[in-house]
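Researcher: Before we compare anything, I want clean individual predictions. No alignment, no superposition, just each chain on its own. First chain goes here; please echo the sequence and then give the structure tokens.
Model: Echoing the first chain and its structure:
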Amino acid sequence: MIIKPELVKKIKDYFNLNIYETKVWLALLGKGIASAGEVAEISGVPRSRTYDVLESLEKRGFAIMKLGKPVKYIAVKPNIIIEKLKTNTIAEANDKIKNISKLKETDEYTELEELYTVGIKPIKHEEISGSIRGKSTIYNHIKELLENSKKEVIICTSVNELNNKARFFSLIFDRLKKSNIKMKIALSGDEKEIEKLNKKLRIKAKSISIESKFFISDSEQVLFIISNGKLPEEEIAIWLNTPFFTSALSYLFDKANKEPAKEN
């Protein structure tokens, strides 16, 4: 049995194995049940190393040691491996999320916040601005921007974008309503879809004819999405903390949307 180098490389990366583990596992899959000597012959891995590699694969759930003598190993079905890896990944991710969440309760986090506050106080508003790259990072900033608002938020985007992120925005809208924050929302796209979304999210979004995506908080901060990359990591936004410009933009938004909203 010939094991293709291209397959070895891809399987190694997919399953987070080293080169010997990959070759031995592929050899075992091709044989079904095999001794260390047989696996060494098929895989090309030195026989002296094959025993250790098979033990490693057994511990990780890629192989099962057959009872009896001579000692032989049985390959585990790939689908079972994938399901196990999925379960382990989810468990590891949940543990990391719990640990990250607990960071806010530490003294070190308090010191980080104090450092940021001390550093940011002497800086002029207009200097606190920058570009943000990547859809996930952009939406984290949108969440922070909107949820830290004190009086009013303005949201201008497309009905498709709001639909695609309905759960994300629904949670934000609920929090803003509970805090009595005024929401002004304008959406481009199909008017019937806008009406459906208004009922679904219990909002009063108006229809606009231009395609634009920006989010304003208290007429002080604005986040513009300036490009929609083909890949999520290619999307770019600009964040500005300048009341002089943002209040003017808020005024223009109000002027463009002064006609009464349609009843849902």
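Researcher: Okay. Second chain, same rules.
Model: Second chain and its structure:
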Amino acid sequence: MKMLKMLALLLAVLMILPAAAEEEEDEWSFIDLSGEPIVTYNEVEWDFPIDMMDMEPELVRLANKQMFLDEDFKPAGLVDVKELRLDDEGNNKNGGVRMVDGPWKLRKECAEALVALCDAARAEGHELYLKSAYRSYYKQAVMYENRVKKYGYDDGWVTKPGASDHQTGLGCDVVPKKWTDRGMNEDMAKEPETQWMAEHCAEFGFILRYPSDKEEITEINYEPWHLRYVGKEVAVYIMENGLCLEEFYVQLTAAIDDFLAAGGPRYLVEDFIQTSAEDQYSRY
């Protein structure tokens, strides 16, 4: 009799477990008629190609002529890129990032990805150099004012302080060796090293920040040397779909608006929502 009771109890447990597991799964996702999984949070659909949990808000932060960073904004986790080339005894390693001038700093995840990208390029016979990286609001202000004084107007090559991608600590200018002592222009896109970089940068989490066909949107001249770290998931999506960061941000903002309108928890997406700081240089 005791054995029969145990068998009955075991059978009851086995019948309950699948139903409980199915109920728990439905709390987070379900399958639509096409068979594709739809991610939900608190039963509210997240209708965007990339799950919000696979994106880091700081990595997709926008800085441009409409979305200004505050003068006090300084990215967290800045590291000296040169330090990533040193071994435990402080000696230069063979790999890593070659640099022009410096010292240059980047956010750690960006710097590490840049090391990996440069090492991969070197393995295929391409030598790349870091020519510019993080710039503070005040350094950008000096560069901008000097440019305006030199030409008498804003010629579009040096952006206003607060609008520079370099202030995020995720933007970097990477050039072929023969361009380390030359003024940069769009002709650099013809170089094998630059073409390799454009083809492979997304594999390391980078995008081309200012593409040639997006100048009207970015309001920045074509810069084949300017990489921006956004993380691999986002980089692959942007590059495969021929987007610029502004277009990605518009899509992401629309998805956030829909999510909130449907009753999605704001705390899950609020770190992705940006507001622009004041343009301190509106007189130009």
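Researcher: What stands out in the second chain?
Model: The first helix runs from residue 2 to 26. Additionally, The beta strands are 29-31, 37-41, 44-45, 78-80, 98-99, 105-107, 128-132, 171-176, 206-210, 223-229.
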